[in-house]
């Protein structure tokens, strides 16, 4: 009896101890949750970290995934909080403006931004700066003199490289079709202008048609098909971003024009590299999106910590890749970056 009574007492003590421990855990959890909420009721990853909002044209293509990889690497190195957002398509400037205003409301310290529309995004960017945020532009510019730093391909020079490659053609007459993306996006227009300036003085060149399409492979494919059917003399097509490059490539394949049409395209992913290897695409001008993301966040870090950026304009360079050099070690690193 005494032994059983002792066991009952021991069990009761154990239950009390467990109940106290459970209560302590619950109270601690409540305190953690309370401290993890901002005044607006939004969870904060780490209130001690400076916060950077990376707002891009979209988030789905290989180009933007590489941008985020670079941005994420820099955020880890500099112990920053980071968000990565963009609209569902590369024409939706209204969604971008909403994301800018959300970043201001959430109290981030800086925005790293690539503009869908050079003019239509300017007011929202100016408002963000007026609220104390630092703004760094990557890839595609915005019409604001309040941006602290711009990091991108030299788009005009990249367009000239595309033109110079076209002029290597041995054709006596070069009939060009241009497939560009949103005409309000600064980087596409700069690339096209560089291309036009490179080819305009060669008497062999005639630009037959120039079309601006939605930044989707389907729209680019359909417009390219229409263009080559309307203008069968076209023997060169130049296009200026990842989605339009895929669309042009698909159109050339489906119309069986690979042997008679030179295609100069921009950016790369697994599909466009395969097109290059098969001869559907003749050259890819490949940018360095990883560097844009990394340097954009690094520059934002310097700005919010009262350090001057190393440069206010940084060219992240492009590489012209063809079937002749695509298997070189340097080109392989560019085509298949380690994320």
UniProtKB/TrEMBL annotation:
GO terms for cellular component: cell envelope. The keyword Acetylation does not apply. This is Ribose transport system substrate-binding protein. The keyword Membrane applies. It comes from the Bacteria. It holds the Pfam family Peripla_BP_4. GO terms for molecular function: carbohydrate binding. The chain crosses the membrane at residues 12-34. Belongs to the bacterial solute-binding protein 2 family. It is found in: Cell envelope. Its main location: other. Residues 52-307 form the Periplasmic binding protein domain. PANTHER family: D-ALLOSE-BINDING PERIPLASMIC PROTEIN-RELATED. Keywords: Membrane, Signal, Transmembrane, Transmembrane helix. It comes from Anaerosporobacter mobilis DSM 15930.
